[in-house]
Amino acid sequence: MSKSKQQYGNETLYNQIQEDALLLIESYGVAVSPVAAAKLLAAMPRGEAAQIVYTEETGRFYISRETVEKCLDRTRQGMEFWPAGFGTGGMAAYIVDNDTPRSPDNRDMKRLAELFGRTDILTNLQSSFNICSRVKKNDIATRERTEVTAIDDMVAAADGKLIMPTVYSDAAYDRLRYFSTQGHRVGVALSIISTYMSVSEEMVDPFLKAAVRGLPYIMNSMPIGGLTGPYSMSSLATLAQAESVFGLVLGQLVNPGIKCINAAMPTIADMTKKDMPMMFGSVANAMLNILLAELNMHLGIPTCQSACSHHRDSLDDEAVRRSGEIYSLVNQYDFHIMRHLFGFSSQLNDFNIDNMEQQIELYHQISRQPLPVTLPQSPEYDAEGLNAIFEGFDRQDFRGLDHTLQNIGHSFRE
Questions:
Q1: Alpha-carbon distances, residue 316 vs 31, 320, 390 (angstroms)
Q2: Residues linked to residue 95 through DSSP beta bridges, in sequence order
Q3: Is the pLDDT reported for residue 198 higher than 80?
Q4: Whole-angstrom Cα distance, residue 29 to residue 242?
Q5: Per-residue pLDDT averaged across 131-151, rounded?
């Protein structure tokens, strides 16, 4: 922890969160279907697969803390691969031009990559929008062509910096592998958990395509406080940490020594509103992710979080004001990589490259002359949080839990 920076959490809290995360992985386990389990276990060397306890009767992977710690040690060895700074994040469904949303295409990705390449504070480029949003699932040729073109454009414009697209086709993974063998800094962005500590069937194949090829990967997890996760700071951080760490461990068991990074990026539902929108752009969301950044830096694990810059549907005067406040706040704390601060709207549904350029310039201005901000009070460990996680898992819903209802208006504020 830099002595010049503020500290949101503390060592005791970090250790409590990590202890609970390890308990979830070891004792509660991760739900996985027989088909997904067979694929994952078959991809592992025999000695590595033997470290997972699984039967079809339980339908869960159980991994001991000794194995988790061993795999985290492997993960730590790749720390230097991951450049500190800001990442672009992703994936928005729409590009916005002149306040009009449309589907993104390869021209947008090329423009984004060129902006990334010439922007000093941006150190890793992800697929900030889904260029295959209009490609039919069974149109493999079009998907391959679109993804490979995007990768080529990203590498060409990145000026040697790290690119981490989200891709699905074999051709795209092979292209990334080719660039990796040529010395380019490339990898992929992934997730493996859907909700409630359950392996996503759809993400098993993309995960294995990356892990078997030895491609570095970002392991995303995004439980939503109040909906798919508990409604307190430490307990929501615990669930996000457990899900992301599980994804790191799986990669290390498939391909020991693979470079991977913890991208636990939980967010929060605003339970005071009828439609329960996500609180992207809130101080609470930023600080939740700062807490996870501090936790993983404390553990010595590469880490990548999300602190969205504003809470508006467009970059109006209010959004610019909030962005300045969030930039001023985030700069007070240590983090490794932080995403989604430039170009996204409040719900991460759309992305505007013009706004991204404007916000990057705003960030430079704020860095030179920060706005006065009130530093949030440090969070406390929630002793009831783990029980709330178990109860929410049993119900497959956190909305009606006493724990959630009691914490509305207290745990997370704007």
A1: 43, 6, 41
A2: 102, 351
A3: yes
A4: 10
A5: 95
